[in-house]
Amino acid sequence: MGQFVGGIVILVIFGAIGFTLGKLRSSAQTEVAHRMFGISRVASWVIAISGGLALLLSSVLFTVPANHVGVEVLFGKPQTTYSEGLHVKNPFSDVFNIPGLQQESTYSAVVTEGEKEIADAVEAVTQDNAVVDVDASILWSLDLSQAKEIYREYRTLDQVRIRLLRPVSRDEIRDCVASYPFEEARTSQRQAIATCAEAAISDQTGPKGVIINAVQIRNMKAQSTDLQASIDRKLSAEQAAREAEFRRDQAEVDAETARIRAEGEANAEIAKAEGVKQANLLVSESLDEKLLEFRKYEFLSQNGNTNWVIDGTVGVDGPQLVIPMDSGSSGGDSEGDDEAEQ
Q: I need a labelling partner for 85 at 20 to 30 A (CA). Which of 152, 239, 243, 285 fits?
């Protein structure tokens, strides 16, 4: 609407300038002066009309960014909504973009880490009456289908945080923490607390256009230093006990592994011995006198220095050994041959 009014103002200003120039032109005495005033007047009107049209167009054309919804407001009252892209609106109305991007609200005991520049953890009391500081983060976004209602009620994201999300989330986190003893709340039940808080906060904020995407319980610490120290000592002792138990179990596993390995090696040796025994039995069963005699001849013939003279008569028991002779003694061979010929 401001741009539209600005365009009207520019048209009025330049109209006044053109009117003034026309008056001056009528009072001019020379032809040159008439021409100069005429050119100036035309130029001023062209500039005025162009500027006015540009401002008028910018007052009716607008763009909604991605993942936003535009809410058109006329004289303070929401009229309609626009999806992302280029649109045309009433020149007297304004458009406010409502973001659908995920937001984060963090409450932390660490200064400068949360929404406020101070320690801002959620103070809660556990089931066993321990006062604790809870560091938590809420991931949330606006339900763009309720953009008009969100604008009407809160106007800005900061107002959504301050007036809706912050008080609701802190109260629900306190209620969920109160269901567990301190030791369980800070260790095994932390996820259960986060799930409880997410459901409870969603029930409160969902009807008002705020979607809870996740609740993260980042840390929990007792305000009493003595209580925190005793809890830490107990946790350290439990950790040491678990480590000792693990080492004992590992030793048992190693011993069992060694026993199984030794038993396997023994069984392998027994199987090997059985195999050798069976092989020897098969060999002994396959041997007879003739085969042994043949093997004897074969073995003695392998060295190449022994000749065998066999009687021409072959008995029932096979070839008979007559005389072993050394192949290197040529004289002895000759005498033997002569005797054989005789």
A: 152
